[in-house]
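for ur thesis appendix - Glyoxylase, beta-lactamase superfamily II. copy paste whatever u need, i formatted it the way the template wanted (i think)
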Amino acid sequence: MTVRTIGGATIQKVEEICGPGFKPARMFPKFVQEAFDAQKHWMVPEHVEPGSDRLVGSVHSWIVKTPKHTILIDTCLGNHKQRHNPGWNNLDTPFLERLKACGCPAESVDFVMCTHLHVDHVGWNTKLQDGRWVPTFPNARYLFAKREYAHWESERRAQGAGKVNDGSFDDSVLPVVEAGKAVMIETDHQPDPLLTLKDYPGHTPGSVGINLKDGGRQATFSGDIMHHPIQVYHTDWSSQFCWNQELSAKNRRKLLEDCVESNALLCPAHFPGANAGYIRPQGDAFRIEWDR
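the 3d part is after this line
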């Protein structure tokens, strides 16, 4: 598996599932076919399924190892969880074995960091044990953005138990809180000397980017601030899943500007194949140089 180096830290992607999903016209309310076709030559087959034009997406976590800590960023979907999406329902994947094969057994994780609390970013926070959902990473503190958690806690009060984020708030977030493993943080919180956080609300009210800096180099873990590389070229194409379409577009552009300024390696949550790259300006938008 590819191990990337940022100063004295390492990064590895661990994939849970990958495959074609929505067609772009369904995914992006502002989709323009001609603009999509102009980029399709480099997106097929890694990022767009040949023939169908369905967007290919990965669900994966990032292992970050610094000299002091092992950090897991976003925890995918999880096993044995009841979801409405058939491709996400009642999964039984060897995700924990894949982590272990990367030198990251569950017991070694010091911090779990969720860029936001949607269903496909919190699933492995917990596992089913003796009929109960318990924290998967027994020695970890789980860091949740305070504003993000407060929003979904409020939604749960309004909607009722089991109704928020396809049930994941109840089976993948609340058990962590009840076990005393959760820490509600602001973006000035620094869990490791090499890590900083930045607010990029829009996809959800409390979406954050996580920056890893060392030795004059930086990587930025962006969660769902963007879902697909076409959004590098069309920053105004917010997904149908964004809480605030306009704010999401504004902060997506801000993220990309920040990556250009810092020459950060952009590490999104759902890019398959060549899953990370460097952002360069291109006209009034951007392009990506893949880190292969």
